[in-house]
């Protein structure tokens, strides 16, 4: 049986995440999808490119 955890977030972040959640989808499923798509190096590369272009 999987254990549950609580992740403290601000109210505004919770509302943003809740807005992305679809009917029948658990928060665990949604967060797992978000983590799978997260590419921190790509974000840094995009920011660096934008800074260099200016």
Secondary structure layout plus pairing:
Layout: H1 11-20, H2 27-37, H3 40-53
Give structural notes:
The chain is mainly alpha-helical and 54 residues long. The protein has helices at 11-20, 27-37, 40-53. It is built from three helices and no strands. It is elongated and about 50 Å long. The N and C termini lie far apart (53 Å).
Total helical segments = 3
* Low-confidence runs of at least 5 consecutive residues: none
Rg on CA atoms, Å: 16 Å
| Helix fraction bin | 55-70%
Mean pLDDT: 87
- Distance from N terminus to C terminus (CA atoms, Å) equals 53 Å
- What is the succession of H and E elements? HHH
Largest beta sheet, briefly? none
List keywords for this structure.
3 helices, 0% strand, 54 residues, mainly alpha, elongated
Nutshell version of this structure?
The chain is an all-alpha fold and 54 residues long.
